[in-house]
Design brief:
Length: 365
């Protein structure tokens, strides 16, 4: 009879040293891979952002083609350029519910005491019988075309401390018109008396332009650019000074102090309707790109003081969540990513419609 003998050999396991070496190698590989993945994701987000701005450019071109002029950046009754291009973005469902003319102010354009069509203290709905309630409901409509995918903003203002003329939440766009290349403050008295002396951009306050008036050339003139907000939960001890979403007070945040919020309005603005806070409608290329990132990391009083020159300039600055720069839409329908290192004089010139500067730019998409 055959007898089988089974011999079980013990398997050799990993030693602690070998295991640590493997973990270290994996860590190195992850360290090399993650930045590449993050860069790829940011590149995709930037491409999406550029596509959003391309839609805005085309909508403005279609508007100009139909009406032979571009929309106001902001009208005295608080209506913004974004309201007028909604039909060209296939957003007629919102546009058709808006009431964009204040008859009292239409009868007397210098009287800004007419109906405040952007203020409502009751329930709001796009189907409401009340036209003001429909307008305010539109202010809360989140539209992807107006949000940068890289932005840390939640889109809507939130928190009990945010109450703008009775509207506790409003959609905040990441794209804003270029209104000037010389303006340093929306408190400049010339805005109320002779706005065209400081409103030198394509989408300014109280006027409309024709394509022929853009003497610098549509391809050399910024029409729309980015603005960035930073929500409170995104703050870290290493955060730099940035717009604070849900508080309108000067508060410490890590090593910095943040002043009152510098929000931009969507479709319409109750403040502009009341003749105030024109920075809700546009930015100025007189302020360096991403100006808020250059503010020193300290609680300097000018940053916290809403009437200081530093803060007033900060309100009008173009800014972006993209590393090293921001995306801009030009009048010819092209989009360019401009670096933070762009010469201030060149960046400033891009904001004017008739400065007749000779410019050389690369990076069109």
């Amino acid at each position: 009879m055959l007898t089988f003998h089974w011999t079980v050999r013990g398997s050799r396991g990993f030693t602690l040293v070998e295991l640590l070496v493997v973990i270290a190698i994996i860590g190195v590989l992850m360290g090399l891979l993650l930045p590449a993945v993050q860069m790829a994701r940011e590149a995709a987000r930037r491409t999406s952002c550029m596509n959003n701005l391309r839609q805005h450019s085309l909508a403005l071109l279609h508007y100009e083609g139909a009406r032979k002029q571009y929309p106001h950046g902001a009208r005295r009754d608080g209506v913004l350029w974004t309201a007028h291009i909604l039909p060209y973005l296939e957003l007629s469902n919102i546009y058709n519910q808006l009431t964009l003319r204040d008859e009292l102010e239409r009868a007397n354009p210098d009287d800004q005491t007419g109906t405040r069509q952007w203020v409502w203290h009751g329930d709001v709905s796009l189907t409401s019988a009340n036209p003001i309630a429909r307008n305010v409901a539109a202010l809360k409509s989140e539209v992807s075309f107006f949000r940068c995918p890289s932005s840390s903003s939640s889109g809507l203002t939130s928190g009990s401390t945010v109450s703008i003329n009775g509207n506790e939440s409003q959609f905040r766009p990441n794209y804003v018109g270029c209104g000037s290349h010389v303006l340093l403050s929306d408190r400049d008295p010339r805005l109320r008396t002779f706005p065209r002396t400081v409103m030198t951009g394509a989408l300014g306050y109280g006027y409309q332009i024709r394509a022929a008036e853009v003497r610098d050339g549509l391809s050399n003139t910024i029409f729309v650019g980015e603005v960035e907000y930073l929500d409170p939960l995104a703050f870290t001890p290493l955060s730099r000074c940035a717009r604070l979403e849900s508080d309108n007070r000067c508060v410490p945040c890590g090593p910095v102090c943040i002043g009152p919020q510098a929000d931009k309005a969507f479709i319409g603005s109750a403040d502009i309707d009341a003749g105030d806070d024109l920075s809700e409608a546009f930015c100025s290329t007189a302020i360096p790109l991403n100006y808020f990132k250059s503010i020193p990391e300290s609680c300097l009083p000018p940053i916290c003081d809403p009437v200081s020159a530093v803060y007033e300039a900060y309100e009008l600055a173009f800014s972006s969540a993209h590393p090293q720069g921001a995306v801009f839409a030009f009048g010819d329908g092209s989009n360019r990513f401009l670096s933070n290192e762009i010469a201030p004089e060149l960046f400033q010139s891009l904001g004017s419609i008739n400065g007749r500067e000779v410019l050389q730019l690369d990076g069109s998409e």
